Amino acid sequence: MTNRLAGSTSPYLLQHADNPVDWWPWGDAAFEEARRRDVPILLSVGYAACHWCHVMAHESFEDDAVAAYLNAHFVAVKVDREERPDVDAVYMEATTRMTGQGGWPMTVFCTPDGQPFYCGTYFPPAPRHGLPGFRQLLEAVVATWRSRRDEVLAGGAKVVEELAAPRGGLVGSQPPGADELDAAAKALARDHDAERGGFGGAPKFPPSMVLEFLLRRHARTGAHDSLAMVEHTCAVMARGGMYDQLGGGFARYAVDADWVVPHFEKMLYDNALLIRVYTHLWRTTGSGFARRIALESADFLVRELRTPEGGFASALDADSPDASGTSTEGAFYAWTPAQLSDVLGPEDGSWAAELFAVTEAGTFEHGMSVLQLRADPDDPARYDAVRERLFRARAKRTPPARDDKVVAAWNGLAIAALAEAGALFDRPDLVDAAIAAGDLLVSVHLGAAGPEADVWGDRLARTSRDGRAGPNAGVLEDYADVAEGFLALYAVTSDDAWLTFAGVLLDVVLGHFTAENGEFFDTADDAERLFRRPQDPTDNATPSGWTAAAGALLTYAAYTGAADHRDAAGVALGLVRSLGPRAPRAIGWGLAVAEAWLDGPREIAVVGDAEDAATLALRRVALMATAPGAVVAVGPPTADATASPAARHGRSVAPVALLRDRSLQGGRPAAYVCRHFVCRAPTGDPAQLAAQVGARDPESPNVPVT
Questions:
Q1: Under a CB-based contact definition with an 8 Å cutoff, are residues 643 and 670 in contact?
Q2: Which residues make up the CATH 1.50.10.10 domain(s) of the chain?
Q3: What's the CATH number for 178-317+402-599?
Q4: Where in the chain is the domain with CATH 3.40.30.10?
Q5: Which residues are within 8 A (CB) of 21 and not within 5 positions of it... i.e. 6 or more apart?
Q6: Alpha-carbon distance 412 to 199, whole Å?
Q7: DSSP 294-328
Q8: In 535-572, which positions are buried (b, 16+ CB within 10 angstroms) versus exposed (e)?
Q9: Omega of the bond leading into 203 within 30 degrees of 0 (cis)
Q10: Does the pLDDT at position 333 exceed 90?
Q11: For residue 303, what pLDDT is reported?
Q12: Strands (DSSP E) along 536-637, which ranges?
């Protein structure tokens, strides 16, 4: 028998549609039912790829006796945190305030008005490790609700009052300068694990935004220590078990300090961010290793996460059936020496076991090992053959389930990564994949009637599935990250419509997400009201919506000359001035955007026939620019420019401001390098352009163009 979740578009909610728990989706009806019955709400928040969410579901939510008690004494509400990041954010803040820690599954007991009064995360079926059993907890909450309600609710109300109080002081008078950025880099150096890479201890998450900041700082200052931290961390991440040595792509994090054992779920956002980091590392140094990791991860994205509609699915699960059919974390990815020999034969199996650090004792659980590649193979041809055979053999295993909803923000990150990787590595198929995802976001998430429609709106849906938009409104990170992706598409395609769509989204940011003092909120001013309006300027696994918006606004202003967009970015970056030196790991993307602000960012206009070899040579150098946040526009001379070369969804627009009044030089293509639309003398010499924008010769690793 199914419950109320059966009609959901969320794969996570659908995982619970056959539970004996009488789940309600988040909404007014659930809270009205709790008021009618005068019972508390059990709010359970998780996501489809979450291992411990599955564990708690199997142990408790699929238990008939537990479900019967839960149904009799509570209204149970299930939320997909990826569909409703706003709900997740406010209740996670309450959870961490009440317990000192957070995580998923998140378990919150609320009043019928949504006020939390008891919070936690995973609860086992029976007491262990200092945690009460889940049934025991339910009974205690019911007893408290009946006998000590006023006392408990007063404590919850105090927490809610503290969380809802105006914070103030989040924006400063001006963006950070060189001193603050240098102080942030020094703080990161102190926190850098010089032996194992990364920052801090276990568990270790990929520090994508911090790495982007350090790459930009190196480009601006030449600081070798910043580049060294990036190179070291990128090497150990991709050589350890967190990286899929057979299929490419990264798991969500490593549970240990040595990057050996991953938490096996593979998220779209992690891989999108890391593709960009490794691509930019290659652009800086010419590292063949960085190029390989970027392209293998991009191929993983397209091969395993792309949906039939052209978007990208959210994640692959951590769990899959093992040889006995039991759903087990990491079963798809882990190996024993005997399994290697079964596939490869004794000789190659022994060689592969040594190469990939597969041991009899195992590096994971139950004698299984996660593949690592701590050193390059001495026989590359043999390595390629062995890797291909193991990949084909692994494909016969039952793969992890896929959460195939399309999240707007994460697709924006993927679009930016694939567009840049495709352009820099001469992989037009990756650019095409980015374009297809962009078209899906416009046609479905912006409310058009269909892929060929020319009717579209300005408000963004958070998710879609099977080409149908979900019911939840986009949050700040959706608008900012999709705008970032569209701006990257404009840079590599010269299709002005992408710039137009980015402008539409950023106008909504300024009109509906921005306070009078310039602060950003995570939800729009007309969004559903929760017990507080979410506002978090710090990074999590993805850039914060706050700093992502600042970055997109700054880039858009560099293309268009829009002073209000640049001013809004500058006000928002005031936060980074105070927070960056004190907690740089919490605001890495803000630091990266601040580097772009400090550098200009540089604006590169390339004027010429798009098919002309000389124009293409200048364009190639422009895209290789390492100058922080540099923007690239390519188009014909202003006198010859009319409209977008490939009107999309009914949009055909005039040339952008950066290309305005640009002309050929002596009848030949020319590049203009500007800051704030004040330009150097144009040049048709790729080497001279490279010197102006910090570009390396793509054919000569580690050798700048001169």
A1: no
A2: 178-317+402-599
A3: 1.50.10.10
A4: 4-164
A5: 3, 61, 67, 70, 71, 76
A6: 27
A7: HHHHHHHIIIIIB-TTS-BEEEE-SEEE-TTS-EE
A8: bbbbbeebbbbbbbbbbbbbbbbbbbbbeebbebbbbb
A9: yes
A10: yes
A11: 98
A12: 602-607, 631-635
Q: Are 286 and 696 in contact (CB under 8 A)?
A: yes
* Sign, Cα dihedral of 334, 339, 343, 347: positive
DSSP string of 664-697?
-BTTB-EEEEEETTEEPPPB--HHHHHHHHT-B-
Bridge partners (DSSP) listed for residue 679: 674
Q: Which of 321, 312, 303, 310 is nearest to 244 (CA)?
A: 303
Say which CATH superfamily domain 4-164 falls into. Glutaredoxin (3.40.30.10)
Spell 479-517 as b/e; 16+ CB within 10 A means b: bbbbbbbbbbbbbbbbbbbbbbbbbbbbbbbeebbbeee
Phi/psi of residue 426, nearest 5 degrees:
55, 50
pLDDT of amino acid 362: 94
Question: Is the confidence at residue 648, as pLDDT, over 90?
Answer: no
**70 phi and psi, to 5 degrees?**
-60, -45
pLDDT at 65: 94
pLDDT at position 640: 57
pLDDT for 162 equals 74
CA 328 to mean position of chain CA atoms: 26
Please name every residue paired with 298 in a beta bridge, in sequence order, or none if there are none: none
DSSP state of 111: -
Is residue 6 within 8 Å of 14, Cβ to Cβ? yes
DSSP 3-state percent helix, strand, coil across the chain (nearest 5): 50, 15, 40
- HEC secondary structure over 580-604: HHHCHHHCHHHHHHHHHHHHCCEEE
Reading phi first (left if > 0) and then psi (alpha if -120 to 50, else beta), residue 656 is in beta
**Main-chain dihedrals φ then ψ at residue 526, nearest 5 degrees:** -110, 20
473 three-state secondary structure: strand
25 prior amide bond cis, ω within 30 = no
Instruction: Report residue 216 as tokens.
Output: 């930009």
- Residue 42's H or E segment, with its range, is strand 41-46
Q: What is the pTM of this model?
A: 0.91
